[in-house]
From TrEMBL:
<dbReference type="InterPro" id="IPR038765">
    <property type="entry name" value="Papain-like_cys_pep_sf"/>
</dbReference>
<keyword id="KW-0645">Protease</keyword>
<dbReference type="GO" id="GO:0008233">
    <property type="term" value="F:peptidase activity"/>
</dbReference>
<keyword id="KW-0378">Hydrolase</keyword>
<dbReference type="Pfam" id="PF02902">
    <property type="entry name" value="Peptidase_C48"/>
</dbReference>
<protein>
    <submittedName>
        <fullName>Ubiquitin-like protease domain-containing protein</fullName>
    </submittedName>
</protein>
<comment type="similarity">
    <text>Belongs to the peptidase C48 family.</text>
</comment>
<feature type="domain" description="Ubiquitin-like protease family profile">
    <location>
        <begin position="127"/>
        <end position="320"/>
    </location>
</feature>
<dbReference type="GO" id="GO:0006508">
    <property type="term" value="P:proteolysis"/>
</dbReference>
<dbReference type="InterPro" id="IPR003653">
    <property type="entry name" value="Peptidase_C48_C"/>
</dbReference>
Length: 362
């Protein structure tokens, strides 16, 4: 950088230019080159690559050229509803992977140290799985399921409803966060007399704008909501029938969990859901001002232990969506149901991991 100044009226030189020297008088040093031999480089052509959104296990063939004769072919999401067993080959692959390093006799460390971590981590919707203990909890009968298990299974169920090609009624699901936020919002409105907020994260579910919840409720007839009873650490299923404007409740231990407890647990959903639908305006009919009506459904298969409420919650939703709730086996084989769910979700996870990461599951 060149600067100039003065000292006692005399020009002072900074760098190579004196004060008062016009900028146009700066020396321009020419760089010699042979202009006749200078050639413009050839532009580098873009390498044809598939779009990131097409690098998915649900797409078999693709091409990024606009005039290409190949068309994108979408593979239907493979989901075995109800008690339809997965393919024998899929069962063998999962069992071989699961039992590697498995120590059933050890009550503390169920897997060897080298076989416990999952590298790279499996992705099932919003859930990242980096340990085999996650699968152990899912498979083990009478073992309570965590929020991550419920979110992963309801995500898998939601994708199966949407992409399996079923001809039955359109359905979608929510997750544990929806249940948690709806109870928090209900407490704010009732105990603190707050007004219904204009900006509400629950509206993203209703409008189909939340990541991995891209179906708005105006396009479906059924919404399946996992509901958690805090005081009992227990899961029940809420089935919101939009056309009939009521919430059916399914409980796999109604001899233990009384109706009064369940009615108290679903009050937030009965009152907040109409507010959400009025604010979102996704329905084609006028939303009533009254809360949802409710019904506790009985006569369904019941659990025989204290830890299978989570798998029953998911299976109730499956059978209702397939309109086979009246034919649900009684007694219900939770061991088979847990194993089949694990096999299908494992296959889905390794396909996604292999495509996006290019690595094999260890």
């Amino acid at each position: 950088m060149t600067r100039s100044g003065s000292l006692g009226g005399n020009p002072v030189t900074f760098g190579c230019m004196k004060m008062g020297t016009p900028i146009c008088m700066k020396a321009i040093i020419p760089i010699p080159f042979d202009i006749d031999n200078v050639k413009t480089p050839e532009p580098r052509k873009r390498v044809t690559r598939p779009a990131a959104c097409l690098q998915s296990p649900f797409v078999k063939s693709f091409n990024s050229q606009p005039n290409c004769s190949q068309k994108v072919e979408q593979v239907l999401f493979e989901y075995k509803f109800c008690l339809d067993c997965p393919a024998t080959s899929d069962i063998k692959i999962f069992d071989c992977w699961y039992h590697r390093g498995y120590r059933p006799g050890n009550k503390v460390k169920k897997f060897c140290k080298d076989d416990l971590p999952i590298v790279p981590a499996m992705e099932i919707g919003p859930v990242s799985i980096d340990s085999k203990m996650w699968w152990y909890t899912l498979k083990q009968v009478a073992t309570p399921l965590t929020d991550q298990h419920i979110d992963a299974m309801f995500y898998f169920l939601r994708m199966g409803m949407k992409l399996s090609g079923s001809n039955h009624t359109c359905s979608t699901t929510t997750d544990c966060y929806f249940d948690y936020k709806i109870r928090i919002l209900f407490d704010l409105l009732t105990k603190h007399n707050n007004q219904f907020p204009q900006r509400n994260p629950l509206l993203l579910y209703v409008n189909g704008e939340r990541p991995q919840f891209y179906t708005n409720w105006g396009e479906v007839q059924n919404v399946f909501i996992p509901i958690f009873l805090d005081k009992r650490a227990y899961w029940i299923l809420g089935h919101f029938d939009i056309a009939n404007w009521h919430l059916d409740v399914y409980n796999s231990a109604y001899k233990t969990i009384r109706d009064v407890v369940m009615m108290e647990a679903i009050q937030p959903h009965l009152n907040i859901i109409p507010h959400l639908l009025r604010q979102s305006m996704v329905l084609k009919f006028e939303v009533p001002d009254s809360p949802l009506s409710s019904r506790i459904c009985k006569g369904t298969p019941q659990q025989t232990n204290g830890g299978d409420c989570g798998i029953f919650t998911v299976k109730y939703a499956e059978y209702i969506h397939e309109m086979k709730i009246s034919t649900m086996p009684n007694p219900f084989d939770t061991k088979l149901a847990r194993h089949n769910m694990a096999v299908q979700m494992y296959k889905h996870a390794i396909e996604k991991t292999d495509v996006h990461c290019g690595q094999a599951i260890r």
